[in-house]
Amino acid sequence: MKPAHLFVLVALFIVGSTTLQSCFTDHIQPTDVRAQLQQVSDSLYQHFNAKWKIEKNKGGFFLQVNSPAGSNLVSSNIEPGVQRDSHYRIASLSKIFTAAAIMLLQQEGKLVITDFIPAYLPATPAYDIPYKDKITIKQLLQHRAGVFDVTNQDIPTTVNQPYAGKRYGEYIRDDLKQDTHTFTFDELVGVVAQNKLSNFSPGTTFGYSNTGYNLLGKIIEKASGMSYSDFIRTRFLEPLRLTNTYNVWQGTDTRMKDPFVGSYLYVPGTSPTSTFEDNMSIHVTEGDMVSSPADITKWIELLLTGKAGITPQTVSMMEEMQVADVSHGVYGLGLTFNDGLGYGHDGAHLSYISTLRYNPATKTTVLMVATLFKTGNTPEASYTDFLELAYGVRNTALRAAQIATK
Predict the structure, then answer these.
(1) Would residue 18 be called left, alpha or beta, if left means φ above 0 and alpha means ψ between -120 and 50 degrees?
(2) Less crowded by CB within 10 Å, the N or C end of the chain?
(3) One-character DSSP codes across 305-345
(4) Environment class of residue 59 by beta-carbon count within 10 Å: exposed (0-12), middle (13-18) or buried (19+)?
(5) How far is residue 170's CA from residue 210's CA, in Å, rounded to a whole number?
(6) Helices then strands (H, E): number in the chain?
């Protein structure tokens, strides 16, 4: 199994626990806030450097904190240092945009989230998925629709397909050698429909599904009359002047715009591999977007304060949490929540690990990002390493929020 694909085994976690155990010790604290933030970032780097022997400038961490007292951006083992306009892959933070788009369309009377999805999807075989008549738009937003996740689940060996027993994306890119293939909603959802795949009856439990968000993308297109990427661009990115944020939907668009923050994969016995170039078309709506520290923190602040075109009443609906699973804690409509941090989302894509939160009580935003990952000799070892890194990122975000709000 290729190292990049081994990472998929752990990426589904998406950093979701609601409790944290601190494994990093801050020493004598400087009094300057920026210096304290630099110290907690460096502490995280030093911890993993001791374990993984991170090479100079080949994977590190960056931290952006905005509060009423000011804004600070620090980085560790990334040279030159990360800038406010430096691009990076935000992974599942993209889901916040998708959820906001659905809620904006509801505000405008173009859909109702409690409606069943067939009213907003093409009446074609590609969308004839199991339980379609019982799935609501809201359940898709909440990951409670039971939609089989083509991105993160192996296709069952029982189906009569050449990709049985594999990830569909790996089959296309590796087996068929179509590495820059442009994946589409029709194609990805069509795999679910054609093979009658489902995880559970809608509304019965929580099950994280990127394919569920692909369905939301198609619903956005049907309700708005424009492509998903155009809707996000014209309704959010351009009006809010998020000039360093964009969707990636073409399979050939593998390299981020300059300047960007590189990412690196560490595999035992080999030199670090750069991972910042990738085909992101399979992740449209759920993990394809590129942003910057300044843009993504501005976005979450504007959205959750009712200044991104979504009314405060609609924001309150997005913030209504339900118990999810052990990995995700609680989940609302494209948002999660943690005490001390606030509302936001987490993301994981080789090799970018992100936590983004806005706390309305303290008016403080924290973005913490790792730009590296290390695989182990077994999938279990890789998963353990990922959990430690993910919790480290989250724990450092919490510590940064505490520093900013003293």
Answers:
(1) alpha
(2) C
(3) TT-SS--HHHHHHHT--EE--TTT-EE-SS-EEETTTEEEE
(4) buried
(5) 16
(6) 11, 13
CA angle 162, 13, 359 (to 5 degrees): 140
327-353 core/surface letters (b: 16 or more CB in 10 A; e: else): bbbbbbbbbbbbebbbbbbbbbbbbbb
β-strand partners of 368 = 63, 355
User: What is the residue-wise DSSP string for 82-131?
Assistant: P-TT-BEE-GGGHHHHHHHHHHHHHHTTS--TTSBGGGGS-SSGGG--TT
Q: How many domains does the chain have?
A: 1
Which residues, given as ranges, of the chain have pLDDT below 70? Answer: 1-30
Q: Spell out a b/e string for 107-122, using b for 16 or more CB atoms within 10 Å of the CB, else e.
A: eeebbebeebbeebbe
Chain segment 340-381, per-residue pLDDT in tens? 999 999 999 999 999 999 999 999 999 999 999 999 999 999
What does the block give as tokens for 236? 């959010």
Would you say 395 and 84 are in contact if contact means Cβ atoms under 8 Å apart? Answer: no
Q: How confident is the model at residue 312, as a pLDDT?
A: 98
Rounded Cα–Cα distance for residues 169 and 143 (Å): 21
Backbone angles phi, psi at 164, to 5 degrees: -60, 135
CA distances from 198 to 132, 161, 207, 283, 354 (A): 10, 16, 11, 19, 29
Return the sign of the alpha-carbon dihedral for residues 314, 319, 323, 328.
positive
Supply the pLDDT for residue 327.
84
| Owning domain of residue 183 | 3-404
Q: Tell me, what's the pLDDT at 387?
A: 94
Q: How many CA atoms lie within 13 A of 305 on its CB side?
A: 16
CATH number for position 92? 3.40.710.10
Each residue of 2-58: pLDDT tens digit?
Answer: 444 444 434 444 433 333 344 444 444 567 999 999 999 999 999 999 999 999 999
